[in-house]
Specification:
Elements: H1 3-42, H2 49-55, H3 59-75
């Protein structure tokens, strides 16, 4: 086997490997997108995490978190 045959074989294997990985990533993106759409249909609350914490009605916890964030921003 000559060096040119080996280079040709390595090029083919490289392209094949890259094609497999690219195909897997495309399938993964499609699966995640479909999962997000399916979960979105079944989700009753369409609020964000902040909206959920505001609905809990615990104003003292929110005030403490706000104070901690402000203190952190002052020191850093």
């Amino acid at each position: 086997m000559t060096i040119f045959d080996m280079l040709e074989q390595s090029g083919v294997l490289t392209l094949l490997g890259m094609g497999v990985v690219f195909s897997f990533l495309i399938i993964l993106v499609i699966a995640i997108t479909l999962t997000g759409k399916i979960i979105g249909k079944f989700e009753k609350n369409e609020g964000t995490a902040a909206g959920v914490s505001q609905k809990s009605g615990d104003g003292a916890v929110q005030a403490a978190i706000g104070a901690a964030v402000n203190e952190y921003r002052k020191t850093n």
